[in-house]
Design a protein that fits this description.
Helix content: 25-40%
Order of helices and strands: EHEHEHEHEHHEHEHEHEHEHEEH
Number of strands: 12
Strand order of the largest sheet: 8-7-6-9-10-11-12
CATH architecture of the largest domain: 3-Layer(aba) Sandwich
Structural class: alpha/beta
Low-confidence stretches: 321-330
Strand content: 15-25%
Largest sheet: 7 strands, parallel
CATH superfamily of the largest domain: NAD(P)-binding Rossmann-like Domain
CATH topology of the largest domain: Rossmann fold
Mean pLDDT: 95
Length: 330
């Protein structure tokens, strides 16, 4: 049978669906040199994680018919090269949105309730710490959401039961859409100055790479918490975050994404007791991954059968019009 190359293992459902069309082969590693060798002869490529799928990789296999992306972000794939070869790239917008939104709320609660601090103090036998420190509340606090797409809208909706004020910055969303989730659209400087929690949920683009930099962090409300579950490159670098923590400008940070990935954990921010981290894992819940894999596998199978996929990044390569056009990001 022909070969379908995977940059990471899939679940049973995806394996069953896609094995109808080819032998599933997991790449030895995700370096460009390895992918250039192992994609030769592949009729499809499944992209898990964030390996760089360059034009050279896309052009290496003359048999390549389609690319499947198990997620919403596709900045690591050269879409232009795929489009030039009329190779559709399917992706899975919205499938993991709820998992990320829930993780955003979990980070807010963990930071303001000082869960890591209390856990550490309790295990050290410091019962007296309960009289010396206090946590905070979500009730009455202001959350600032940068990126009011699927995930940002869910975060806004989840903030309602906590009676939080919701600000949002998103140049692609109008006031009517924001009002539907009880969010007030403001400029970024206003959001940074007024938000107690700053949640990054925007797609990383050329324009917003380094959006959160030293200059903007200087405008943050003192003691605010910053949560990045979007992409690492939206923040200028870890140095500026660490400086803001040390100066008290930020009360804490929660980071699930980094630039590069994996990050250099010898960086001093990883020793900070006010820095909560995860290895780009918070979107990968059981339910979210099941939805992501099903959406991707079903759309890839549809293309193999000459049918129309639901979600495709570059619909112009198809003769028909896909049911759903790409979003600009989470």
């Amino acid at each position: 049978m022909p070969k379908i190359l995977l940059t990471g293992p899939l679940n049973d459902y995806s394996n069953q669906v896609l094995s109808e069309f080819g032998d599933l082969v997991v790449a030895s590693d995700t370096s460009e040199s390895t992918l250039l060798q192992e994609i030769d002869g592949a009729i499809a490529l499944v992209v898990r994680g964030v390996p760089q799928i360059s034009a050279d990789v896309i052009h290496r296999s003359p048999d390549l018919q389609l690319i499947g992306r198990s997620g919403v972000g596709y900045g690591n794939i050269d879409i232009g090269a795929a489009t030039a070869r009329r190779i559709p790239v399917v992706y899975t917008p919205g499938a993991g949105a709820r998992a990320v939104a829930e993780a955003s709320l979990a980070c807010m609660l963990a930071l303001t309730k000082k869960l890591l601090f209390w856990d550490r103090e309790m295990k050290a036998g410091n019962w007296q710490s309960r009289f010396e420190h206090q946590g905070g509340d979500l009730e009455g606090a202001t959350v600032g959401i940068v990126g009011l797409g699927r995930i940002g809208q869910l975060v806004a909706e989840m903030a309602r039961p906590f009676q939080m004020r919701v600000l949002a910055f998103d140049p692609f969303v109008d006031a009517t859409a924001a009002a539907a989730v009880d969010a007030q659209l403001v400029d970024l400087d206003t959001l940074l100055a007024e938000a107690d929690f700053i949640c990054l949920h925007c797609a990383q683009t050329e324009e917003n790479t380094g959006l959160i930099n030293r200059e903007r962090l200087a405008k943050v409300k003192p003691g605010a918490f910053l949560i990045n579950l979007a992409r690492g490159g939206i923040i200028e670098n870890l140095d500026v975050l660490h400086e803001a923590l040390e100066e008290g400008r930020l009360g804490g940070v929660a980071l699930d994404v980094f630039e590069p990935e994996p990050p250099d954990v010898s960086h001093k921010i990883f020793q900070s007791q006010r820095c909560l981290t995860a290895p780009h894992a918070l979107a990968g819940t059981h339910s979210a991954m099941a939805r992501i894999f099903k959406s991707m596998a079903d759309d890839m199978a549809a293309l193999f059968r000459g049918q129309r996929p639901r979600f495709v990044v570059n619909p112009e390569v198809l003769d028909g019009t896909p049911e759903t056009t790409p979003s600009r990001g989470p």
